[in-house]
Write a structure and sequence with these properties.
This protein has a seven-stranded mixed sheet, covered by helices on one side. The protein contains one helix and 19 strands. The chain is mainly beta. Strand 18 and strand 19 form a beta hairpin.
Length: about 130
């Protein structure tokens, strides 16, 4: 596990590299009760100048520089969060989903696929149709 210079991991946050590597870049803030974990198959990398909000959950993903992952956001294995991307409150980025630079996942919405489609939670059938083969 590597935590970059001037980064902060706040009270109650869990950063675990037991399953695979975790790298947090410089000038990052990992807020209260967030979880960041690496897996054997998918290491986790958080780029520089990134904020990981309270209760966010990141596993086996790549987050490029200057990202904003709001409260309760969830990023799954193999996902890539492009530079400057925002995943707002309770947003979800599914397995192996790729969000291009500057993307936005609205509050409670779900990103799925490559390239990512960003869908409201009431479109379960469409989300599942894209996610199933991933």
């Amino acid at each position: 596990m590597t935590i970059g210079e001037n980064s902060r991991v706040l009270f109650g946050a869990v950063v675990t590299a037991e399953g695979g590597p975790v790298e947090i870049g410089e000038h990052c803030i990992v807020m209260e009760n967030a979880v960041i974990r690496g897996t054997v198959r998918h290491p986790t990398r958080v780029g520089k100048h990134t904020l990981v909000g309270p209760r966010a959950y990141l596993t086996g993903c790549t987050v490029e520089d200057n990202a904003f992952l709001a409260t309760g956001s969830t990023i799954f294995n193999g996902a890539v969060i492009g530079k400057g991307t925002e995943v707002r409150v309770n947003g979800v980025v599914h397995l192996r989903t790729v969000l291009r630079e500057g993307s936005l996942v609205p509050i409670g919405w779900i990103a799925v696929g490559e390239p990512a489609e960003i869908l409201p939670p009431d479109e379960h059938e469409k989300i599942w149709a894209i996610q199933k083969p991933l």
